Amino acid sequence: MIDPEATQRGTLMERVFYEMKKVVVGQDAFLERVLVALLAQGHLLVEGVPGLAKTLTVKTLARTIRGGFGRIQFTPDLVPADLVGTRVYNQRTGEFSTALGPVFTNLLLADEINRAPAKVQSALLEVMQERQVTIAGETYPVPAPFLVMATQNPIETEGTYALPEAQVDRFMMKVLVGYPTEEEEFVIVERVTGGTPEPQPVASTAQLLELQCECRATYVDPSLIQYAVKLAAATRAPARHGLPELERWLAHGASPRAPIHLIEGARALARLRGRAYVLPEDLADLVPDVFRHRLVLSWEALAEEVDADALIEKLMARVPMPPKPLEAHRDAVPRA
């Protein structure tokens, strides 16, 4: 049974997606994950080489939703005050005032987050979790909606600080962005050299807040929640779930945030697809992005060049997907 209201909301997000596609060529899966994170109130960790339109994507999205956009280039000399703000003394008045940092925006791009020391990374992740900043004992909430997209460069590790697993776990998804095809790159060159079209604002931040609330009301069958929990449990005790060959490759499995974020992301993806209920394929599409950064591989896996995506593929092949929980309800509905 089709929900007209869900379809209307999905159409709104389709318009946002269409406006983004005016500027960003290709990268459909990446753009979809950005919208999923926005609706599910999560944050993205993006890994890709320079020049793949990561900054352009966030900037274009901010324009289409009439939201604020901020970009921080992370460097080794950055301090937490450069992100969240600080107290400034005015010599003329003899009083202190608060100067808020660049995190006070709707869409924040944290470029090359692994180039900043741990104290700066922790300051950003605290804002992501609490959605507020405390300066000199006073609390300042960041604007809503609030999305952080942090990027990492996979080809250059000199002068970088690895993100601790406990901090990486706070990101809802880790998305891998690859090179465009030759056809897409031709369109990119043609479009950039010939004048980039301007995206039009088609939504507002107030509408997005409504959509975020509606995402929490999206129906998820208990069997799908059980499937998400089984996937996470199988990464912690593979032998108990019929995957003894994964024991030597996994040092630590996924935390409870993995099934939580998987369900929240599936709800958002269902809304993007015009549904008020989640289907198994919604979960299956998001499992690699939600799980890949939460699996801590053993030295044996690194030596054998076994990556997280290969382990997730084996995991999904062995843990059975539940049957479509709403098929019986759909078949019971009389058709005209």
TrEMBL record:
Q: Which keywords does this Swiss-Prot/TrEMBL entry list?
A: ATP-binding, Hydrolase, Nucleotide-binding
Q: What family is it from? A: Belongs to the MoxR family.
Which GO terms are recorded in the biological process aspect for this UniProt protein?
A: regulation of DNA-templated transcription
Q: Where is the Sigma-54 factor interaction domain?
A: 6-153
Query: Which GO MF terms are attached to this record?
Result: ATP binding; ATP hydrolysis activity
**InterPro entries according to UniProt:** ATPase_AAA-3, CbbQ/NirQ/NorQ/GpvN, ChlI/MoxR_AAA_lid, P-loop_NTPase, Sigma_54_int
Superkingdom of the source? Bacteria
Q: Which organism is it from?
A: Quisquiliibacterium transsilvanicum
The record's listing under Pfam families reads: AAA_3 (PF07726), AAA_lid_2 (PF17863)
- Under Enzyme Commission nomenclature, its number is 3.6.3.-
**Protein name, please?**
MoxR-like ATPase
- In the record, what lineage is assigned to the organism producing the protein? Bacteria, Pseudomonadati, Pseudomonadota, Betaproteobacteria, Burkholderiales
